[in-house]
Amino acid sequence: MKKNKMKIFRGQIYFSKIHERVVRVTMLCNRIEVAEIKHHALDLGEVLFSQLSPATSEQVKLYLTK
Known about the structure:
By secondary structure, the protein is mainly β. The protein has one helix and five strands.
């Protein structure tokens, strides 16, 4: 049975489960499902799509006000 995969988009804001913070996707490799992420100016490297989840509106608001 196939899992429903979440679509990830460059420039969008997500919650990184592994880093436990809101991040912005800067680059994507859809073939291997890897995204390069940043938290403000801090480059956090690459994560798997499965390690990202949609950010809540409250998380986005906090991220954008810092």
